[in-house]
Design a protein that fits this description.
Layout (H helix, E strand, L loop, with lengths): L8 H13 L5 H24 L1 H11 L6 E2 L6 E2 L1 H12 L16 H15 L3 H22 L2 H4 L4 H4 L1 H12 L4 H14 L14 H21 L14 H6 L32 H14 L6 E8 L1 H4 L10 H5 L2 H11 L9 H4 L2 H7 L2 E5 L1 H6 L6 E7 L4 E6 L12 H14 L4 H13 L5 H6 L1
Parallel strand pairs: 3-4
Antiparallel strand pairs: 1-2, 3-5, 5-6
């Protein structure tokens, strides 16, 4: 970069990320990337099953062009753009994909939705692919962590707005772009950035669309860069740049890549419950109380939850209008957790959403923002649940790090069982699912066998 651009917001941000292009990524981090890939594939296979009816109608009406690329969980070959779009849509359909509380973002679904089809198209080896994923995670996370929570307060969905940036640099690395091509791809991605949180409101089913369109726009960004389109030299800065649009401020104090000594991909959570991550501490507290004290739902008179502000906002509703609404509701998650001792895919279906026993218990839950817990977020994602029975007994449980956080990771057995459950839900046999997971864990070199599984 020349002297005239060396101090721009874009140059500052890109300098830190581009340094990773030249560093050896530790094997332990690449092993974590393998698990992140497996997580993404599992939730996308299951998501494709949930979305099947809508996608089949779309395919029939639009008469998709045939091609050689397969979208995960879909039988027919299609062109690259369609595969990327459907991967993104299915990858976030269940809201079961990985993410981080710092940055308030789902990281894997936009990035892997593009990397996998491109790796298939260009015969990329597994090491290069995994390294690219690590760089993509770092890019999206570093930006999200730098602009949150103001970004969310303005109504933006960072999974889309920051996810597209991660795609651009992940692909630039994987396909060996020149530095100029990488900067242009990033610049075009900044122009493409989109995603609004109003998709969480009322009956909307468009939250996965934020990922799908960002994946597609990320692909287009790198294609335009390869064609030679020039981007603005400082798309992040200035009075009309990305930062001004996304935060209201033209300058932002960027977090450092490799924040606190770990890669972004090491900071991610894996979801044990099929709900928004904000719901998980309270769900886990409810399940823990059930197991400790053999709580019976019919004996509950009231449940009160204290948690951090971001978990309360738009997640405290007891009026459940559909599956998407249930996934965003702390009260609903608590109800199914107490009744079934779990909150997986089978607890978030239209049949369950209409279940009167669940809805009656949901109505007994109140959620309150607590200043002390809010101040601890995102380092601690706590919920304190107090349950009162009809006989007047009171039980309390606090969860600071719900299962799946780096501080409280899933065991290898738990992760394996979760992956197989998702893959089987997505139409795979148990044996095939277990084989696929083992291949991902040991994948070295050619990735063709993985595409056959998908």
């Amino acid at each position: 970069m020349n002297d005239t651009t060396s101090k721009t917001s874009t140059a500052i941000f890109l300098h830190g990320i581009m340094e990773l292009f030249r560093k050896d990524i530790p094997q332990s981090v690449l092993d974590k990337a393998r698990l992140s890939l497996a997580d993404y594939i599992g939730v996308t296979l299951a998501g494709a099953t949930v979305m099947r009816d809508k996608i089949e109608r779309y395919v029939q009406q639009e008469q998709l062009e045939p091609g050689e690329i397969k979208a995960i969980g879909m039988d027919q070959g299609m062109n690259l753009k369609d595969a990327v779009f459907f991967n993104g849509l299915n990858g976030h359909a269940l809201d079961f994909d990985d993410g981080t509380n710092t940055g308030i973002i789902h990281l894997g679904s936009p990035i892997f939705s593009v990397l996998l089809p491109l790796a298939q198209k260009y015969k990329v080896d597994s090491t290069k692919f995994l390294e690219a994923a690590v760089i993509g995670y770092e890019t999206s996370f570093t930006m999200a962590a730098s602009i949150q929570p103001t970004h969310k307060e303005l109504g933006y969905h960072a999974t889309g707005t920051c996810g597209v940036l991660g795609i651009s640099l992940a692909v630039a690395y994987m396909l060996d772009f020149t530095e100029e091509q990488a900067q242009n791809a990033f610049s075009i991605a900044c122009v493409s950035a989109t995603g609004m949180l109003s998709v969480l409101d009322d009956h909307s089913e468009l939250k996965p669309y934020n990922v799908a369109k960002s994946a597609l726009l990320g692909l287009i960004s790198i294609q335009m860069a390869r064609m030679g389109f020039l981007g603005h030299s400082d798309p992040l800065g200035g009075g009309r740049g990305y930062l001004k649009m996304m935060t209201g401020e033209a300058l932002v104090d960027f977090k450092q890549p490799h924040l606190n000594g770990t890669y972004a991909i090491e900071k991610t959570y894996t979801k044990p419950y099929a709900a928004c991550r904000y719901c998980h501490p309270a769900i886990e507290a409810a399940i823990t109380l059930r197991e400790k004290y053999r709580i019976i739902a019919s004996e509950v008179s009231a449940i009160h939850v204290k948690t951090y502000y971001w978990a309360v906002n738009k997640h405290d509703h007891t009026d459940i209008s559909g599956v998407s609404s249930a996934k965003m509701s702390i009260p609903y998650g608590i109800a199914v957790g107490l009744i079934y001792g779990k909150a997986g895919l089978s607890e978030y279906t239209m049949e369950q959403v209409k279940n009167r026993t669940i809805l009656d218990l949901t109505s007994k839950v109140s959620v309150e923002s607590d200043d002390e817990l809010t101040a601890q977020f995102p380092a601690v994602t706590a919920a304190v649940l107090t349950l009162t029975t009809k006989s007047g007994q009171e039980f309390m449980e606090r969860v600071d790090f719900p299962k799946g956080e780096p501080e409280n990771p899933m065991t290898e057995k738990e992760f394996t069982e979760r992956f197989i459950e998702l893959a089987v839900y997505g139409g795979k046999k148990r044996e095939e699912s277990a084989e696929m997971l083992e291949f991902i864990k040991k994948m070295d070199g050619c990735m063709d066998r993985l595409y056959q599984y998908l």
